[in-house]
Amino acid sequence: FPVTINSVKTTVEIGRNPIGFPEELRLDNFRDAWQQGGYAVTIRNSLIMMSATIVSSLTLAGLAAYALARLELRGSALIAFYFLVGTSVPPQLFMVPLFIAWRQLGLINTHLGMIIIYTGLYSPFATYLLRSYMIGLPEEFMEAARIDGASNFQIFRTIILPLSWPGFMTAGLVIGLNVWNEFLFAVTFLLDPSLKPVATSLFEFQGRFSRDWGLTSAGSVIMVIPIIILFLFLQRRFIEGLTQGGLKG
């Protein structure tokens, strides 16, 4: 709420009255922030990386979760726990060796390199969540399909996917939110301004010795509006998928 209020103030007024209502609405902040922050470019880049990461992560996580939940693999519970632990490892621990490897592979300053990183970061969570969701699915449907001669992939495509779509939607939304808000890897691995995502636009409002807090607040509002709209649109399915997945784990 304070960010929204400050987005229509000048920097001087924010310094004088940081939490009160504005004396005069300065709506030009949004136009200036959009132009100065290059949001037309950064939002496009974020949408590209977010969409590709969601597709790749859910593809890998869906297949892995099905194998862990339904194929009776030895040690599947231990593997699932390993994925859970993997989500708690700070990514800063492997940033330096990853940067060196990416430089040798020519993946620095490319969207492909970022998509691979994001897929590696968020697939473990998606795998654990989807496995928890798939464990609770009725076994009778799969047994009937096996009797009819369906393969494991056919069972996954025709039975598991339709029944698990709330879990996939939840995992995809969480992954999308993380990619949209991610800053550390983006600012480290992307050097070309034309490739940077939306989270880096806030850098454009900082001078050498000062920052335009009015434009910063307006830029923050521009950044979060698409996420708020998406979450409100999918809120019910998100909570349903997350709750059911957690309860069935």
Helix content: over 70%
Using the alpha-carbon principal axes, give the shape. Answer: elongated
Classification by helices and strands? mainly alpha
Order of helix and strand elements from N to C terminus: HHHHHHHHHHH
| Structural Rg | 22 Å
Index terms:
249 residues, single chain
Brief sketch in words of this structure:
With 249 residues, this protein is mainly alpha-helical. It has helices at residues 2-6, 11-16, 28-36, 39-70, 76-86, 95-105, 111-135, 139-147, 152-181, 184-189, 213-248.
What is the secondary structure topology, with strand pairs?
Layout: H1 2-6, H2 11-16, H3 28-36, H4 39-70, H5 76-86, H6 95-105, H7 111-135, H8 139-147, H9 152-181, H10 184-189, H11 213-248
Helix pairs in contact: 3-11, 4-7, 4-9, 5-7, 7-9, 7-11, 9-11
Question: Can you walk me through this structure?
Answer:
- By secondary structure, the protein is an all-alpha fold.
- 72% of the residues lie in helices and 0% in strands.
- The protein contains eleven helices and no strands.
- The two termini are 36 Å apart.
